[in-house]
Amino acid sequence: MPTAPASRPRSGQATALALATLPPGEPVYLGTPWLGPSARQHLPPLRGWDSLAAPDLHGVPRFHVLGMAGSPHAGAWSDDLQTDLAELPPPQLLASDDLGPLRLHHYLAPAAGVLITDWLADPAALTLRDARGPCRLSSGTWSCKQGSVALATREVAYRPRRCLALELDDGASLEISRRAELGTTLRGHLGFADFNARLRNDAPALLELRIDDAPAGRWTLSDNQGWAAFAVATTPGPHEVLLRLTPLLGGTWTEQGYAPQPRRAACLELRALADPDAEATP
User: Fold this and answer.
1) Looking at 8-112, which runs of residues are DSSP E strands?
2) Mean pLDDT over residues 261-275, rounded?
3) Distance in angstroms (rounded) separating the CA atoms of residues 191 and 196
4) Do 172 and 222 touch, CB atoms closer than 8 A?
5) Could you please report the per-residue DSSP string of 133-146?
6) CA torsion angle for 54, 43, 72, 77 (degrees, to 10)?
7) Is 13 helix (H, G, I), strand (E, B) or coil?
8) Mean pLDDT, to the nearest integer, of 182-187?
9) pLDDT tens digits along 41-81
10) Quick one: CA torsion of 95, 97, 103, 107, rounded to 10 degrees?
């Protein structure tokens, strides 16, 4: 019998075993993007939002990249990973495992810092309200008087991103607050979901950040910035954090003019990160 069909299951089993033995909390990314549909179908570690729809590589000091074998650097990196690296220095390639047609690369990125608090990880800890009162949380969705918010994975700038998807009335402001343990940096992203919605609306949104009721940052972000990052330096320890988002116009433009429905969704994430060299607070 031919050997090629039998070799594919063995290769798949070897890859699945290699991924299963990785330390918990260390995500796996794809270095060969076109492998995505098949790899995620057969390899559960690649289906999670931390691998498929992560915000960037900040707060990820150790990670792994699965890609096609070949030349020394084939499948070890991708344009998407380079984008998510942002201003971080290149990570250190520690080792690579030969898995037949695939290779699993292991990276160390100490400059990425460590994750302290992720606003998406504990929705129940968030308090949301608009100008007309508090929002009500049920099954991962907040119902507000002037819109709605859902914990979701949305397409932003042609890539999936895990975020709080906010659909608000024109000019309405939404406040998201919680008491959280902070590190040395608060870092987040804001983008706008759905390609068709972006074609019909490029109005910016105003984002304001307050820490312990003091202004900490203010940004005006638009769709042409894509998955736009924002960050502020913070003092480690427990703090009250409040984000206020005000999209100017959320509807669409058609041949008949402006229509407030359907609303364009803003996609927001926020994390507290710590410099690995920062001293812990007592």
Assistant:
1) 28-30, 62-68, 92-99, 102-108
2) 90
3) 14
4) no
5) EE-EEETTEEEETT
6) -10
7) helix
8) 98
9) 889 888 888 888 999 999 999 999 999 987 666 789 999 99
10) -30
| Residue 277, amino acid | D
Residues 245 and 146: their CA atoms lie apart, in Å, by 12
Q: Note the pLDDT tens digit of each residue in 26-50.
A: 999 999 988 888 888 889 888 888 8
Rounded-to-integer distance, Cα 165 and Cα 196, Å: 16
Tokens of 21: 């033995």
Summary count for the chain: helices (H), strands (E): 5, 20
- Provide the 10 A C-beta neighbour count for residue 281: 11
Question: Looking at residue 203, what DSSP letter applies?
Answer: -
> Which has the closest alpha carbon to 207: 173, 179, 241, 239?
173
Nearest CA among 133, 115, 116, 117 for reference residue 125: 117
- Report the DSSP beta bridge partners of residue 215: 210
Of all helices (H) and strands (E), which one includes residue 162? Answer: strand 159-168
